[in-house]
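Researcher: Go.
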Amino acid sequence: MSLRMPRDLARLSRSGLAADNLSAIEVETMAETASSLGWQGRKVEKALAALSSATEDRYPDALNAAGDAVWAFLVQRELCGLRDHRLIIREMGIPDIVLKRLGAAPKR
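Model: Structure:
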């Protein structure tokens, strides 16, 4: 398997604007981190859509799934150094009931 630098980073690297000392492994790690964060975000969107359309008998399961997805997404964001979740909670429309399941006291 060969690794290549993403085009945007390669272009910036040649111009001297990016860290020229990034190894191929570091670049690949950054790409995987971003990809994982995007995947977790899409998982939250799907879980929230399922929660909003859940019937009364499916609501508890949908709420648990949404809580798990949001928790994993917030942990992934923190691992990426993004520790302020207020904007993403507001933008994604994460309901207070989901945040309360995580032990968070919603502040808006």
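Model: The mean pLDDT is 83.
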